[in-house]
Amino acid sequence: MDAMRVKQILSSSADIDVTYNGTSVWIDQLHEDGKTATVHLRGPLEERSEVNISELKE
């Protein structure tokens, strides 16, 4: 995924399915470097991780 698409997903009100390593995640924010983002797993756990956006899949 690229930074422009991450920005589109963050600004969308739609529920867009994004996965990281095959696991469904929510994108919390795109970092200023434009290459990493903070995500958390969908579900009850709120554990957040910093990931490379190239590893996010739609």
Automatic annotation (TrEMBL):
GO cellular component: endospore-forming forespore
GO biological process: asexual sporulation; sporulation resulting in formation of a cellular spore
Domain of life of the organism encoding this protein: Bacteria
Subcellular location: Spore core
Membership in a protein family: Belongs to the SspH family.
NCBIfam families associated with the record: SASP_H
Name of the protein described by the UniProt record: Spore protein
Species of origin: Halalkalibacter okhensis
